[in-house]
Design brief:
143 residues, VC0802-like, Alpha-Beta Plaits, 6-stranded antiparallel β-sheet, 4 helices, 6 strands, elongated
């Protein structure tokens, strides 16, 4: 199982990110996790949302360049070295992490870490074999 992330390519100009978030809110699309990267004239917003299919449709219908990407999301305790432990498991299985970002739980004792790793299915299998809780699109418990 994996999660569909929406990547949105935004012009690097004042108000563009707010336009996107307003559009999603108006269409009842809840952003559960977000990462924003700056690349000169462009920004890439990576989103985990409650309804990826509708999100992509709404964005494209409103002239936002967007695509889906398969990512892995795991629940992780908030403790020293937790992320390192996951990276060691992936590394030991020759799986490269292209990028990652995190979201803290509502109580602060757990977090959700999102990884772009290829191949996704192999990464999910490796993590599960090592007792790691892998989340899915159906109900990702991301605040």
């Amino acid at each position: 199982m994996h999660i569909r992330q929406i990547s949105v390519f935004l012009e690097n100009r004042k108000g563009r990110l707010a336009e996107m978030t307003k559009l999603l809110a108006e269409n009842k699309i809840n952003i559960r996790a977000i990462s924003l990267a700056d690349m000169m004239d462009l920004g890439v917003a990576r989103l985990i949302v409650n309804d990826p299919t509708s999100c992509l449709s709404v964005l494209k219908a409103n002239d936002f360049a967007a695509q889906t990407t398969e990512v892995v999301a795991i629940e992780l305790p908030d403790r020293l070295g937790a992320i390192h432990g996951i990276l060691e498991i992936l590394n030991a299985n020759a799986l490269n992490v292209e990028y990652m970002y995190a979201s803290m739980g509502k109580k602060g004792d757990t977090g959700v870490v999102i990884f772009k790793v290829d191949p996704v299915d192999e990464a999910v299998a490796v993590l599960r074999r090592n007792g790691i809780s892998v989340l899915s699109d159906e109900a990702p418990p991301i605040p």
